[in-house]
Amino acid sequence: MKRILFAAAACLLSIAAKADEGMWLPSLISQRIADMQEKGFRLSAEDIYDINQASLKDAVVLFGRGCTGELVSPEGLLITNHHCGYGQIQKHSSVEHDYLRDGFWAMTRDEELPNKGLTVSFLERMEDVTPLILKGVTDKMSEAERVKIVSKNSEALMDKVEKEGKGIRATVEALYYGNQYFLFVYREYQDVRLVGAPPSSIGKFGGETDNWMWPRHTGDFSIFRIYADKDNNPAPYSKDNVPYSPKKYFKISTAGIHEGDFTFIYGFPGRTQEYIHSDAVKYIQDTGDPHKIMLRTKRLEIMNRYMGESQKVRIQYSAKKASVANAWKKWQGEVKGLKKMKTPSVKKQYEEKFENWAAGTQYEGITKRLAGLYGELEPLQFVYDYYSEAIMACELLKYAPKACKVDDKTGLIDRDATKETAEAFFKDYHMPVDKETFTAMMTEFDRNVPEDSKPAYFRKQMLEYGSAQAWAEALFSTSVFTSLEKVTGLSDIVVEDPALELVSHVNEWIAPVRTKIREINQQLQLAYRDYMRGQMEFAEAAEGAAGRNAFYPDANLTLRVAYGHIKGYSPADGAYYLPSSTIKGIMEKDNPEIFDYNIPQRLRDIYAAKDYGRWADESGEVPVCFIATNHTTGGNSGSPVINADGNLIGLNFDRVWEGTMSDIVFDPDKCRNIALDIRYVLFTIEKLAGATHLIDEMTLVD
Length: 702
Ligand code: ARG
Ligand code: ASP
Prior knowledge:
alpha+beta; 11-stranded antiparallel sheet; 25 helices
């Protein structure tokens, strides 16, 4: 009887990692290294992660706060995606110097452009600090008390570690819902300069049309350089800083790639939720994603219309639009994938098996507890989604409360600081876009949020003005925060303004919702902590040690290793996609009439003359992108794609549309990461940009 139950359980253990699923902790990679080597990897665990000598981890950085980058030269040269450097490229752009449109190449070090606020972080070390962090925590404690102790212990540890040296930044992160805690120690560099970016017609080729899709032909890369003080330590921007000398940088393989080749990705995946309850998935699939998609469709329609009419607005809104469009499209793929995988019902069946196994143990009833908590959470989450996706979509409402800067000493308005913030905001602000967005968002808010969940102020305004549009007219014509002239002309701190009034009512209304959500989330954390352990024990009971070892912690923007191999896939019945693309595909898509597909004339000429230099593959074409089975997510953008010998073969930048549900459930048949072939990067630098001095800094191996 027991045997049968376990056998049945085993087939349902789709919850634990299979095939190439998984994002593994580098410091524990020795547990996976045998499997990696069996699949073709030729290096050791210490080559990947070592704290006593240089290892591959020393060539990987967290770029900004949500991308990955890697070192490719002894002089601090770093590659990441075009879309990761997009904000910086955009900030340096104007109608006169349109680097988004035309690209940018520093031909000398003096021309490299500094980027205020941009940092890169190297992981120095990571360690399990669970006992230290849980010191003083008891089983009897409420979750809120536990949270307090955990954060107090974490802070004390981080403070201590940050005294170790210049630029040291420490974080303590929970793994497996707080069953484990790890300390991550980073060295953060603040002087990171833009060195090169191809024009968007290469770096963003295919635009939103091709985003999240295969076959792909996007040259999604940009190049930066890290600067340090004379002792190679982190320092704020200074003319006297010198190029950073890395402990390790990647050699670049120009040997080419083939289906079946081992690949390995080293980077900072942001967030996954692989172990959540079926009701959580159901909410995402049936409610959360569809509403958010609908709201963003409206916003995009407005932005697109204005951007099509003016180059100025196109520059102003290009980065904003890319970020709105990106999640919008991913959610659509995610909903499709979840439905195709029947994830809610597969998870539900798993939960039943789990409860059968858990009867009489400390885990009994835990999936019901989770279901109960989701019952409470969902209506609140829905309201919160409308707060963040509809109300907060209005730029004016985000800007107004931060517009007036106060001089700490006098308590009066600090006109210089106010002006500086205003100039940054209005450089990229077009009021008509915002006003229409406000109108559309308030209309949807009114239509979809249950009456008794709306703020009283909202109902009053709608009643008074009769429509969102009339309200918008009044708001945008009377608020002082809608133009640079008005804001820079202020002599006093503004306390009364319709935008501020609205924000303050919104804040008052959302605060208790937020508190309630936080309380429920704490209870969910508590329940998941047990459920997580329960799932591992259940797997172990059914499959032994292999069952347990298949668990990996959800992504949380900490450094991870994902390994797999280059592989095509079948997107639908009757179709099969090859794993790589070439310049031929760019020419097939090329169309001067379509913004997303209008390539530089120079590329057309190179193609016509077949002037590929050393960058053609065996077929005689320049390789562009490839796909592989590595498990990745947002944050992995810019990650190095590494071959069996530890050399760089590509730059990760996306996933395929049919596989974007991999943040929740991984389908080995459909989930593929998309990478830029490093040879296309080199080709672009040499043939299009003529920036061969950069290639000379790198180490190429054949
Ligand atoms: N989909 C990729 C990622 O999630 C790339 C996004 C940037 N490209 C774009 N067309 N918006 O970030
Ligand atoms: N494009 C993503 C990023 O920016 C990667 C992904 O979601 O696959 O990190």
